Amino acid sequence: MERADVAVVGAGPAGLAATVVLAEHGADVVLVDEQAQSGGQIYRQPPETFTGVAFAAHAHGAELLAEADAAACRRLQRTLVWGLFEPDAAQEIALNGSAPSPTWMLGLAGEAGIDLLAVRHVLVAAGAYDLPVAFPGWTLPGVMAAGGVQAFVKSQKLLPGRRFVLAGAHPLLLLVADQLLAAGAELAAVALAQPRPGMTDALATAARLRGRVARLGAAGGPFLRLRRARVPVLFSHVVAAAEGAEAVQAAHLRSIDSAWRPTGAPDVRVECDTVALGYGFVPSTELTRQAGCVHGWRSSAGGWVTEHDEWQCASEAGISVAGEVSGVAGAEQAAEEGRVAALGILRDLGKLDEGEVARLAAPVRRRLRRLRRFSAVVQEQFEPRRDALAALADSSTIVCRCEEVTAGELRSALATHPHLGDIDAVKQLTRVGMGPCQGRFCQLTVAALTAQSTGRSIAELGAFTARPPAKPIKLGELADVEAGEMRA
Question: What is the reported pTM?
Answer without folding.
Answer: 0.91
